[in-house]
Amino acid sequence: MATIYKRGKTWWLLWYQDGRKMRKSCETTKHAAAKRQLRVLDGDLEKGLHIDPKAGKITFADAVADVVNDYSTNGKKTLDDVQRRIDKHLKPFFGHRRMVTITTSLIREYIAARQAEGASNGTINRELAVTKRGFTLAIQAGKLHSKPHIPMLKESNARRGFFELPQFEAVRDQLAAELRGVVTFAYITGWRTRSEILPLEWRNVDWHAREVRLDPGTTKNGEGRTFPFTADLETLLKAQLTEHEALKKAERIVPLVFHRDGERIRDFRGAWDGACKRASLPGRLLHDFRRTAVRNLERAGVSRSAAMAMVGHKTESIYRRYAIVDSATLREAAAKIDMGTKTGTIG
Q: How confident is the model at residue 158 (pLDDT cuts 50, 70, 90)?
């Protein structure tokens, strides 16, 4: 078992590993803090873990570099977003501090600083999640013994937009022709526009099985996905296929379902914002289509498990964030109650 002793005013840990005497500074003059480190060390020794005396010297910069490597080796699509959060916000604040010096109090200082800059709670939570991951990886690698409590902020789901069909059509009609198919597909399926719809190729469309498929590893959660043809979806895809065949006759082979003159559409946020303003619906989000698709599937009576699989929600907790009951649905429910009362099926 390990023990602690004092050298000068600083407490140290002492233990034996593989027959060798090991020492490590607790880097504190407080007995209670040293005892906490001792309990963690005793627990690790009981588990048979190899303890590196240099553990605790890892810096924040080293820890988040491990996070980036973890995202890269696992092929996570949010790698660029994580790197941006680290470079723009986390590293400028925490710098090259050692991880053992990052306390809950310091985390709260970071939160206060980001709130003063106008960052939303959701944005701050994404940054705190990166920090948490850095601590977790450092502990798993034996570079750190413990981590501080990292408080997460309450997020208000302010973005609860839905598109009723007339609203969707009004915005769609304000877009260029090559973008109308994209947003129609998003309205029907609720798939992510930038990462799932714009890269969609004809090999993903199975005319025989009458479904559109996304390959495993190409979605946010890494799982494959299938969306069966609806009448509107089939009409849309046939229109896109007609354009594809016309390009083919002109000796231009374009594998993309949606494109701009044969080239990949990378981003159209500016065009989208302009279309929303012209349709008198400023501030609407492309992401509103995910909520809309979930709402439409719920209205159609599609089972929750099927809806989750079609839209691409891995867990029910995430699905419930999108399956928000809007006022129109509540009015429909009230109308059904009134009808039941009149016909005698209720009451």
A: very low
Kindly indicate the confidence band of residue 234, based on its pLDDT and cuts at 50, 70 and 90: very high
Angle at 62 between CA 57 and CA 68, to 5 degrees: 150
The whole-angstrom separation of Cα 187 and Cα 167 is 11
Phi, psi at 212, each rounded to 5°:
-110, 135
Domain segments of the chain: what residues?
3-46, 60-140, 165-331
pLDDT score recorded for residue 332: 57
CB contact at 8 A, 244 and 254:
yes
Given the candidates 1.10.260.40, 1.10.443.10, 1.10.620.20, 3.50.50.60, the CATH classification of the domain at 165-331 is 1.10.443.10
pLDDT confidence of residue 41:
82
Q: Which of 33-47, 169-183, 211-225: highest mean pLDDT?
A: 169-183
Q: pTM score > 0.85 for this model? A: no
Q: Give the Å distances, CA to CA, from 17 to 14, 44, 48, 140, 239.
A: 10, 12, 10, 19, 71
